[in-house]
């Protein structure tokens, strides 16, 4: 993870003292480069306990109101076990799964976006005084953090958003990202809405993780992806995984890929440039609520709006940033009214930005195949089905 | 704006929106420090004449006398702002708009002859020009204060016409429709309440009225898939904002 290593000096600043000491101690006991090694782990509790007692803030998918949502873990016992999910366009349900399994349920409604790119954030405040006014940028606390159980599609999404904010020169995002370690989980099962295989982002984690887990029959395979990952490991050395365990993990991941029923057409980026006038846009707009859910759950969507707040006595002002969406009418408001008045134009903006224009703008697709926009669209509009219909000229 | 003179007026309503103003407990001292309250019967019996810089109007027009009174208030006000679902869309009392008034009066009142009202309950904007609308049943005190603060600073108030779903997602609320199959008017309802219902696992009741271009037909189709019959679907739209055009039309499609 070159970006993390390059920021090593910065990272330290964000580490709590205890964590810094522990990390150094761990590094000393593992001086050699262990990247690429595969180890075996019985269950995740021991590692989580180590990290929590070393002072890391651990954020993991936890049970919240009938869904799995990344939130702060205080006790390894909070990590859900034996749950699976049933997802389809416009529907999500958690159900009992195999009782011994930790990672059967895949992506939930919220990615890691709301942590790295918070939905609402004060940028600065200003106070009026006799001489004029004084502006204070908002200071942010971001403790040394571990994202635990990041799915491969979300790993790709983090990398893509990171690229957006790198180009935008957003130091707050860079600081949060630099002080965050990532423990990925390869998927041994896909939901009905997943199509990461066709987007080449999963179900195996590629680059960008510090550690990666794969759940196998009798435990977890653990792969080291970076020096930071090595430093995160328990000083009590874990046994190496056997060849059979490594093969089992690979087989499960391949089976997950093979089970995916949705696939994005490979030439969708080019095809969408040819169908700007397709009647399909109006057709989908007749079903679309322009409710903004798809953009909010999409782990790569980054758009924001800023608003100013002023106090009643006029002495204080604040500038706030918050998530916005190309589905909101104010999004394209220029003098005289919104540029994209019609719902069809707004749906087209969303789809063409994700699947086509993102390539020109940022050098990759804006879609990782996580399927969230399909599941969490209240009326179940299916991005893949729409893209396929458009690609076929329907 | 120098200390603006503010007036608050009541028409056919429950007083809940005016109470929201009084409910700004923490900010009340700042508020009375920043504005001059010239007319607000719920807060003070001292009344001063116009002209007023901002008139907040609660309630709908249901009598001939009120139809005249709102004209006078408009003439005496620089900015006229409707507060709440009654003033903005006719309120819950607009439910009577689709029935024969005589039958309703007969059914409800022991002495129907004493009731002298208009056929319909109508929003203020059907009678006079309205400069801004604060939605809600009741309005959000946050939006009320925001409107006053913006007027004082000479900036645009932050009243975005985005759906309740946007509030859900910013708040991190798990969608009740997708995760639990609970019918929710959020996708066609304007944000602003502070995510009150979905946050506690309930579907949105539509207190803030329809968003611009609300696609109610598409939402109703989803309600049908969730198992609601046409009567139940119509009832969803016949609520605090039953008089708002998008909801009137959609409810009627299911009769
Ligand atoms: S596609 Fe679905 S989630 Fe997105 S704006 Fe339309 S109705 Fe909402
Ligand atoms: S466009 Fe949809 S499937 Fe693609 S990354 Fe965004 S939410 Fe996931
Ligand atoms: S799809 Fe819309 S909300 Fe998402 S990044 Fe693109 S313009 Fe922004
Ligand atoms: S709970 Fe209702 S308001 Fe919230 S996202 Fe779901 S449909 Fe929208």
Order of the strands making up the biggest sheet of chain A: 1-11-10-9-8-2-3
Strand order of the largest sheet of chain B: 2-1-3-4-5
Radius of gyration of chain A: 22 Å
Fraction of residues in helix of chain A: 25-40%
Given helix and strand content, the structural type of chain A is: alpha+beta
What low-confidence regions of chain A span 5 or more consecutive residues with pLDDT below 50? 1-31
Spatial gap, N to C terminus of chain A: 43 Å
Cofactors and ligands: iron/sulfur cluster
* Count of distinct strands of chain A: 15
> Hey, roughly how much beta strand do the residues of chain B contain?
5-15%
Overall 3D shape of chain B: globular
What is the level 1 CATH name of the largest domain in chain B?
Answer: Alpha Beta
CATH homologous superfamily name of the largest domain in chain B? NADH:ubiquinone oxidoreductase-like, 20kDa subunit
Order of helices and strands of chain B: EHHEEHEHHEHHHHHH
- How can the largest sheet of chain B be summarized? 5 strands, parallel
User: What fraction strand of chain A?
Assistant: 15-25%
Annotated CATH topology of the largest domain in chain B: Rossmann fold
What's the architecture of the largest domain in chain B, going by CATH?
Answer: 3-Layer(aba) Sandwich
Number of domains of chain A: 2
Q: How many helix segments of chain A?
A: 16
